[in-house]
Design a protein that fits this description.
By secondary structure, the protein is mainly beta. The protein is built from ten helices and 26 strands.
């Protein structure tokens, strides 16, 4: 009885279960059929053709009362009872959870559809509101316990074991450019095992220790409810599955993938070797949402005993007791017993998942498990809230993961996981257990499976025919010839089956036959624009034309549509200024003029008169060869007028002549007149007059046009004149 009572106390000290299996392994894109347990949508568009689980299991133990160094347990000097660290509170807790997966498989039945069938056995124990101070007093038995008075409160413990067979279906629901959504559901057939619970209400325990077990007493108050389908708690029945206790359950899930490089996976451009890119993870970000373990199992013959535990028992009574049920009935009276049918719920959980493909084969995953069950409800199993951050390196045959998780009761834990093809093993608390001297959690998972991966097909010669179907896998060839190249006897690149002249080399354009030369002009018919008339190579085998019939071929005729002279390159003699003098004889071909002046315009008296007027209006600074600007541009305007007149007579020669009055030294007047004439000539040249058409000369006071005796006369004598001095023909005056 002592052991049974301590078992009861230990059972009360077990707290919230974390019903998440294979922590750190589930986010792996190669988790295969195990992934369906977390989100049934994961099996579609997976990296597997099929994945067959032979055996796998995941178990965990968590608590917030007792911490120790698991790696020190093997040392003879380590005493777990003494060296472990205890943290008693009014609501301590822990976990015992086990999940065994039997023969199971998943299979992609089509590119957008997948199924899975699995078998599974599970066990879970939940406890809430457990007073750890009570266990701290009884850890060494009543013999070593000191007196205490503890308000136990309302401890609530539930344990459930069951088996299940699940059938899952998943499909791609939507795909648009970078957006990809898939969903899945699982239907479960459930077979009940053990379903037991204990619940205390307003319980207290007060112990008075004496030197005599007969006088040491335990006083308790409150009530205790014990329910179970087999009475294994009271020792009346062993554990077994109950085929009469059955139920149904379901899981639902969605997964969204963001694929920014979707164009690289365009199925419309895929080749056979690409295998529709089934071997590739195509997302940058993946988000998952699922709800699992919806459902219950109906137990038809559940027994529930209600005990009023107000009373006093001695330590000796406890030591002598052999059966918990007999002890309770002997010392607290016959319980109120009822038999009834009851549905035992599954530990319903909502799973959240986010997976980031950081770089190539490196990923970072965050998932959370949120319980959707009321923990305080009588006889209901539930899951602890857990968050797991898992960086991992992932390839087809290998994965290394480092799960960092926070559990509602045992706190932060760090573990690791490995996958080597068909084998996988890991623990979400291994590193913590290795480094910490007071770890409050331990878990492990491992399994063996037969994975059959999707893969890119092999096409060694890249001829579009897979090696397994290619008769010449290392040499490219067409499908029609089973991947082998067609023969080409004459090596003209036209294969024999298409070559009209298979033994004589010829171009592809002529179906493998050499081109002919019908007109024998050395230009082959394929490039001869006139294959039946001989012509030069330069004209693509055609004779040169003479459109205007002037015996000058068009290729040499500068006027191919107008008859002309051979000497004039096929063009008639030109008269650009239409003055009746051909350009060849015209000294001024761009300006009309009479034939008597060789086609150049004659300088008339009117023109000379105008030049005289304009030239005499060009003024200088007194006594200097500097153009006068005081007239506000009048001088410059006169020069422009002179320039326009002279440019109309391109073959006329003009002289700029300078004159002075007789005032002053005659020699100085001569130099001044020459300098002024030169200034005017340079000004006209600067304005664009051809220098060949101009000369200059100074006469001083030697050619007066008025009397130097009067001021008016002297003013008229100080002048510049433009004189026509001749006509230039062929560079000569």
């Amino acid at each position: 009885m002592k052991k049974s009572l301590l078992f009861l106390i230990v059972l009360f000290s077990i707290a919230q279960a974390n019903a998440q299996s294979y922590m750190g392994y589930i986010p792996d894109n190669y988790a295969g059929v195990q992934g369906v347990l977390f989100n049934p949508a994961s099996i579609v568009d997976s990296r597997f053709k099929t994945d067959i689980n032979i055996f796998s299991t995941s178990s965990s133990l968590n608590n917030d009362y007792y911490g120790l160094s698991l790696f020190d347990l093997s040392k003879s000097s380590y005493d777990a009872n003494k060296d472990g660290k205890r943290t008693p509170t009014k609501n301590n807790g822990g976990i015992v959870y086990s999940d065994v997966m039997g023969p199971s498989f998943m299979f992609n039945i089509a590119p957008k559809h997948a199924i899975a069938i699995y078998t599974r056995a599970r066990a879970i124990i939940n406890a809430n509101d457990i007073n750890g101070t009570l266990y701290d007093q009884l850890k060494d038995g009543l013999d070593d316990a000191s007196s205490f008075n503890i308000n136990v409160g309302n401890p609530n413990v539930v344990g459930h074991t069951w088996g299940e067979v699940g059938a899952s279906y998943a499909a791609v629901l939507w795909q648009s450019k970078q957006h990809f959504l898939k969903g899945g559901f699982t239907a479960k057939y459930l077979i009940g095992g053990a379903n037991s619970y204990m619940n205390g209400e307003n319980a207290t325990a007060a112990f008075i220790q004496t030197n005599d077990p007969a006088t040491s007493s335990l006083t308790t108050t409150g009530s205790l409810t014990i329910g179970s389908n087999p009475d294994f708690i009271t020792g009346d029945e062993d554990f077994k599955f109950d085929p009469n206790s059955r139920g149904y359950g379901a899981d639902f899930g969605l997964i969204y993938e963001w694929r920014p490089d979707y164009e690289a996976y365009d199925l419309g451009k895929t080749k056979a070797v690409d295998n529709n890119f089934r071997d590739l993870n195509k997302y940058k970000l993946r988000f998952g949402l699922s709800i699992t373990d919806i459902g219950s199992i109906k137990y038809n013959n559940l027994k529930e005993d209600f005990y009023n535990i107000n009373g006093v028992v001695s330590q000796q009574d406890i030591d002598d007791a052999g059966d918990l049920g007999d002890f309770l009935e002997t010392h607290y009276g016959t319980p109120t017993t009822r038999y009834f049918s009851k549905k035992a719920n599954l530990p319903t959980v909502m799973h959240l998942d986010a997976d980031w493909n950081m770089y190539k084969k490196f990923y970072l995953n965050l998932n959370g498990n949120l319980s959707l069950v009321d923990k305080s409800a009588l006889g209901k199993t539930s899951s602890a809230n857990t968050w797991i951050l898992t960086p991992r390196y992932e390839t087809r045959w290998f994965t290394f993961s480092l799960p960092i998780n926070y559990m509602e009761y045992s706190g932060m834990q760090v573990g690791t996981g490995l996958r080597f093809g068909p084998l996988f093993v890991g623990s979400s608390s291994l590193i913590t257990n290795w480094l910490s001297k007071e770890s409050k959690a331990a878990d492990v998972y491992f399994g063996f499976k037969i994975p059959v991966y999707e893969k890119k097909f092999k096409d060694t010669d890249e001829d579009g025919i897979l090696d397994k179907e290619d008769s010449c896998p290392t040499v490219a060839g067409p499908v029609e010839n089973k991947g082998c190249p067609w023969p080409d006897t004459d090596a003209d690149t036209v294969v024999d089956k298409d070559d009209k002249c298979p033994t004589v080399a010829g171009p592809v354009e002529n179906k493998g036959c050499p081109w002919g030369d019908a007109d024998r002009d050395t230009v082959l018919d394929n490039v001869d624009a006139c294959p039946s008339v001989a012509g030069p190579v330069e004209n693509k085998g055609c004779p040169w034309p003479d459109t205007d019939g002037d015996s000058v071929l068009d290729k040499d005729d500068k006027c191919p549509n107008e008859k002309g002279l051979v000497a004039n390159a096929g063009c008639p003699e030109l008269d650009a200024d239409k003055d009746g003098v051909t350009d060849k004889e015209d000294a001024c071909p761009t300006v009309a003029g009479p034939a008597s002046n060789k086609g150049c315009p004659e300088v008339t008296k009117e023109v000379l008169k105008e030049l005289k007027v304009q030239a005499r209006a060009v003024f200088f600074v007194t006594g200097k060869a500097v153009l006068q600007n005081a007239d506000k541009g009048q001088t410059d305007g006169r020069l422009d007028a002179i320039k326009e007149i002279i440019k109309n007579y391109p073959n006329a020669k003009f002289s700029i002549e300078g004159h002075t009055d007789n005032v002053g030294n005659a020699k100085a007047n001569q130099k001044l007149s020459e300098a002024r004439a030169k200034v005017v000539m340079n000004a006209l040249i600067a304005k664009g007059v051809n220098p060949e058409n101009l000369t200059y000369k100074g006469f001083g006071a030697t050619k007066p046009v008025a009397s130097n005796k009067t001021a008016k006369g002297r003013a008229e004598n100080r002048r510049t004149e433009v004189i026509h001095v001749g006509t230039i023909y062929e560079g000569k005056l």
